[in-house]
Amino acid sequence: MHYLISGGTGFIGTALIHTLLEEGHQITVISRTPEKVALLFKGATQSVALTQVNKIAKKVDGVINLAGEPIVDKRWSEARKQLLRESRVDFTKELIAQLKRASARPEFFISGSAIGFYGSHEGGAPLHEGSHPISGFTHDLCRDWEAEALEAGKLLGARVCLVRTGVVLGVGGGALAKMLPPFNLGLGGPIGGGQQWMSWVHLSDEISVIRFLMEHQTLLGSFNATSPNAVTNEVFSQTLGGVLDKSAKLRMPEFVMKLLLGDASELLLEGQRVYPARLLDAGFEFTYPDLEVALQHSL
Ligand code: NDP
To answer: What's the pLDDT score for residue 59?
Structure first.
């Protein structure tokens, strides 16, 4: 099969493409950096700029849309918020317009989203796909990103799946790459009060979720891609410290996070206890449902 993938040079996209190449599929990566694509996949994929998608002559069997400016790395200035939106909402709109111009009729359009869709929930009740979201920047961003992706159903006749992803844990990138330096030095610990929920997923399960949605042609709509066992930030810190055999008691005060990240600190200071109800109902089995084992396999 021939799949078109945006965000293919990223943490999730790279792992997904390696899996799909091993399975013998053909991949075209939509990227701003063709040289990075060539380096990562050693010439095994094609690459194309977003504005050139309409020129793709080969039949596209499915689209996986993962592009987006990193969300936690920098303070959310108005300009940054605009970039976070453009690289997801506007990008997705343009991608679908390009596919329509090419008269592409992919069977599926699987699009990234995030558990930020639910907004910041103080309470501990597990959130499933039908749970009521709380308004705020991350909810509005994910809502609009998902709304654009759903247009692929109307405009291209594609089956649309929205992957509401939790914190992805894996080797060589994502959240763990940022957490490991202080934890390795014994300087890690809970953030703020530590009682905020962290809904996480192992990278390998995230890829399996995308593969599962690709293969199951009756599935459509939103899916929480998180382990069934979300934990509090305090438990996460203790577990990571335990796996690394390091002390993890140095609490990062809330005001320091706010000074460092401004509004973006809400991603770390507030949380959601998300439950993958629809995936489990559909028969998906997590390889790493347990945090300790997932961390052991991510380090
Ligand atoms: P990465 O940051 O690793 O990669 C994202 C990719 O998006 C990049 O490789 C880049 O591709 C592309 N991109 C970045 N900025 C822009 C831009 N301004 N315009 C167009 N394309 C851009 O992300 P992940 O792989 O970690 O995540 C993939 C998606 O899943 C993201 O949208 C992310 O928000 C979402 N997600 C990830 C989570 C995680 O824990 N990793 C959690 C929840 C959601 P190139 O440079 O080739 O153009």
So the answer is: 97
Predicted confidence (pLDDT) at residue 124 exceeds the cutoff of 80: no
The chain-wide mean pLDDT, for the chain, equals 95
Total count of residues recorded for the chain: 299
CATH topology of domain 2-168+200-226: Rossmann fold (3.40.50)
| Domain ranges (residues) in the chain | 2-168+200-226
Query: How many Å separate Cα 262 from the centre of its chain?
Result: 22
- Measure 89 CA to ligand 1 centroid, in angstroms: 13
Interatomic CA distance for residues 65 and 88, integer angstroms: 9
Closest C-alpha among 67, 65, 62 to residue 2:
62
Q: Which of 4, 6, 11, 98 is the pocket-test mutation for ligand 1 (most atoms within 8 Å of CB)?
A: 11
CB 276 within 8 A of CB 226: yes
Say whether pLDDT at 84 is over 90: yes
Distance spanning both ends of the chain, measured CA to CA: 33
Token pair 């380096």: residue? 39
